[in-house]
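Project outcomes to date are best conveyed with an example. Our students and postdoctoral researchers have been running inverse folding experiments weekly, and each run begins with a structure described purely in tokens. The record below, which covers 452 residues, was selected by the lab manager from last quarter's runs and is presented without edits.
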């Protein structure tokens, strides 16, 4: 029997005993009166304790838990223990939270916690500095009301947080931020901001250096190539050594020219000064032109086929797309032995548009595929040089495609061949009614296409 029931038994037993003692002395009536009075005292005592409990509940501090007797003593002790353990876990939680906030404050990166509806729950001092927030004033505010950068608003809405976003902030001195969103928990998000101004400056210096060197080299190499070709064509190289060296010199200067042109093209693609000039691009026409070029380059050594269904146009830069697609076609011819097959195709696949070049060439081993679009990465350096490669073709393709929000898919099997596909998203596909601008010749792009 537990203490509660024992106490209940005692509360009944004492008045009953008093009644029983009274009975022989004062009779049954007096005994009942004593028993009733005893019970009344018990009830009053309970109500008194209830009143104490209610008063304490208004301000429940562990040090002010009331004293009681009987079962109420147990109730009050249990309450005291419960409250004390609650206080302890609360102070442990507060200490952890403080530690977390101190760690957050010491972080060199900005941190913002957003709730499921993108409202700010908390941010650290670095985030206040990076994004112009105020932790106390802005808690509970919609993030996009405070950081109104259209790119950021779009990034937050896109639900696609694989890559960080680069933001230029112009409060005071201009600085550049890399902002990454990380979803966690129940649709909450962590916004991590990092100041990459110095990194970007170094990167810009590197880009400018390569662009300037390439630019400076362009003219001397062109002059050199011109002279060498003239001498070579005129047959003026009298002695034997010169006769043998001239073709080699012409070859090497042409290689340097291609290298400089590719480096300049890459610099342009990377430069913020050259944003994408989107225009209607007649891709079926472009594909056909590339097919003719492939036939000329192959000179009958391969079976070259064109598989272009429908007349899908794109919105993009014709010059850049021509360069990217041209690189894929040239590679297919260069890396396919004589007698092989090259198929150039332009198709729709679901909502996407797909430019692909399939060859039955030497193929690429799986371990190279992830690195093949890096600058100067070659599987077989000798073969690349022999066939006039610069090692920059696929790097250019990758840059052009990323400027068009497209991606490069590569499927390859050594000894069997490769398929390189440029996959364009629906937003890049041009609705037929908008092509008219170009077919009317109402923009420059149309005239350029006719001149090709
Ligand atoms: P390169 O000027 O050396 O061809 P790219 O950037 O165009 O440079 O290509 C990088 C490397 O990828 C090449 O050196 C070659 O090894 C490989 N590669 C590219 N296209 C093909 C292809 N169609 N078949 C086999 N290998 C290829």
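After processing, the design step wrote out the following sequence:
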């Amino acid at each position: 029997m537990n203490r509660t029931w024992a106490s209940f038994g005692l509360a009944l037993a004492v008045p009953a005993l008093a009644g029983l003692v009274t009975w022989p002395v004062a009779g049954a009536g007096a005994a009942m009166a004593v028993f009733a009075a005893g019970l009344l005292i018990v009830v009053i005592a309970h109500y008194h304790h209830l009143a104490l409990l209610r008063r304490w509940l208004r301000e429940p501090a562990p040090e002010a838990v009331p004293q009681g007797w009987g079962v109420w003593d147990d109730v009050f002790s249990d309450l005291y223990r419960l409250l004390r353990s609650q206080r302890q876990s609360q102070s442990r939680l507060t200490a952890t939270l403080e530690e977390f906030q101190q760690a957050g404050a010491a972080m060199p990166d900005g941190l913002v916690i957003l709730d499921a509806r993108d409202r700010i729950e908390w941010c650290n001092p670095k985030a206040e500095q990076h994004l112009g927030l105020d932790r106390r004033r802005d808690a509970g505010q919609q993030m996009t009301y405070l950081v109104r950068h259209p790119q950021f608003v779009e990034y937050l809405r896109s639900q696609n947080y694989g890559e960080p976003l680069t933001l230029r902030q112009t409060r005071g001195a201009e600085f550049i931020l890399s902002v990454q969103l990380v979803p966690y928990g129940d649709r909450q998000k962590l916004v991590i901001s990092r100041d990459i101004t110095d990194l970007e400056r170094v990167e810009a210096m590197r880009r400018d250096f390569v662009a300037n060197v390439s630019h400076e080299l362009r003219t001397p190499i062109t002059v050199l190539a011109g002279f060498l070709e003239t001498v070579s064509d005129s047959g003026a190289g009298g002695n034997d050594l010169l006769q043998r060296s001239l073709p080699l010199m012409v070859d090497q200067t042409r290689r340097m020219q291609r290298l400089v042109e590719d480096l300049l093209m890459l610099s342009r693609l990377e430069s913020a000064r050259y944003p994408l000039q989107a225009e209607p691009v007649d891709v079926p026409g472009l594909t056909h032109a590339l097919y003719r070029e492939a036939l000329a380059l192959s000179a009958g050594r391969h079976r070259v086929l064109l598989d272009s269904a429908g007349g899908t146009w794109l919105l993009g830069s014709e010059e850049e797309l021509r360069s990217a697609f041209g690189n894929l076609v040239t590679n297919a011819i260069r890396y396919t032995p004589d007698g092989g097959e090259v198929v150039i195709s332009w198709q729709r696949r679901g909502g996407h548009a797909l430019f692909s070049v399939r060859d039955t060439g030497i193929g690429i081993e799986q371990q190279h595929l992830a690195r093949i679009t890096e600058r100067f990465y070659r599987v077989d350096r000798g073969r690349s040089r022999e066939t006039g490669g610069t090692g920059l073709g696929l790097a250019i393709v990758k840059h052009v495609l990323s400027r068009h929000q497209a991606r490069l898919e590569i499927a390859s099997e050594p000894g069997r061949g490769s398929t390189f596909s440029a996959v364009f998203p629906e937003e890049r596909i041009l609705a037929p009614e908008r092509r008219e601008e170009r077919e009317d010749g109402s923009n420059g792009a149309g005239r350029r296409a006719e001149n090709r």
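The chain has a mean pLDDT of 89. The first strand starts at residue 110 and ends at 114. The training component of this project remains on track.
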